What we know:
- By secondary structure, the chain is mainly beta.
- The protein has helices at residues 2-38, 394-399, and strands spanning 42-48, 52-54, 58-67, 79-85, 91-98, 103-109, 117-124, 137-144, 161-167, 172-173, 178-186, 194-199, 205-209, 216-221, 230-235, 240-243, 248-249, 253-260, 263-270, 278-285, 288-296, 301-307, 314-321, 327-335, 341-347, 360-366.
- Helices cover 11% and strands 43% of the residues.
- Strands 2-8-7-4-5 form a 5-stranded mixed beta sheet, with no helix packed on it. A 4-stranded antiparallel beta sheet has the order 13-12-15-16, with no helix packed on it.
- A hairpin with a 5-residue loop joins strand 4 (79-85) and strand 5 (91-98).
- The longest helix has 37 residues, at 2-38.
Amino acid sequence: MYKISITIALVLFFGVKNFAQTENTNSVNTLFENYVTNNFQEKIFVHTDKNFYLSGETIWFKVYNTDAFVNSLSPISKIAYVELIDANNKSLLQVKINIEEGMGNGQLQLPLSLPSGNYLFRTYTNWMKNFSEELAFKKIISVVNVFEKPEVDTAKKSIEYDVQFFPEGGNLVNNIQSKIAFKAVNNFGKGINFQGKIINQTNEVVVAFSPQQLGIGSFVFTPNNSNTYQVIIVTESNDTLHYNLPTIYESGYVMSVQEKENLIKVLVGASKNFTNENVSLITHNNKKIQINQTQVLQNGTTVFAIDKSLLKEGVNVFTIFDKNNKPVCERLFYKQPEAKYMLNTTVNNTQFSTRENVNITVAANDVNKQNIASNLSVAVFKTDSLQPSESLDIQQYYWLTSELKGN
């Protein structure tokens, strides 16, 4: 009789636990679905005919406006706003572009009086104003005014730096190890090389780090609120920079993602006061939840194991929810898309005389070399030292860079 009682108790215990996890999973699903339904967002890409112009020339462009969640053409906005902004954040030129079925063409006439310099080319819709400014499309346009008298500048131009720190999962928490990514660029947008270190109040070096390439890298750090920290960076030109780390919270959650072949491990750490509480992981992409799991924090940690094949191509969002279904950590994971189509171009000749017509045939094919319907924009220009090749294409923008914080 004693054995039977124990067995029944165990069955009831696990039954209650599984019910609670199912209930929590359903709640997170509902929250996500409500968010997607009530927060439709747009994302814009603009293909300009080139990146370098002379004053008086025309910027020709095509606008692609999409649903930010699934990258399909958006039916919502009918007008896009295009601006050219100077270094003082003053809007110099504006134009409205009609959008039909998510696309529109236009031009921006540069005045002959426009000074030489780098300008911000920004495009957005009114709908985007409901959300973050980061949804607007931005790129740098270079302009040279050949009628300007060159200025003789004997003074050495000062270099400014921008260094940002991004804790994996979003937060630094007292006494919990975190990976911190960083990005360091100068005022020309170029990544810089440097030697960096974190020191405490006694000038002891806690962590030393340097970028892997293009000013980007990461390091592992365990903060302790009984200490005060400062980041010191020495550039290749011997400039010394001082920065503070992001806020260190006394209590909270951290996450880390590790990838090995087809297995992804999501490690969750939490302060001691959250031990034995439930945490949930959801991964989503294109308005769809791929994975929704709930586990219990044992001694402040737990690990979610994910089959990589379950994730969609492009940027997948990993979000950790606490027992109250509040999001506490978030991290992006990029899955390289497989090629689904190819663009093939042929030209009717290899050499042309002045003003001779050039016939270019463009064909879009799938992986089986079958023609597929497409809507394209093509820019043709002379490649030289003043006209660099485009560093950002529409596929790269929608699959990856538009999702990156600090980009």
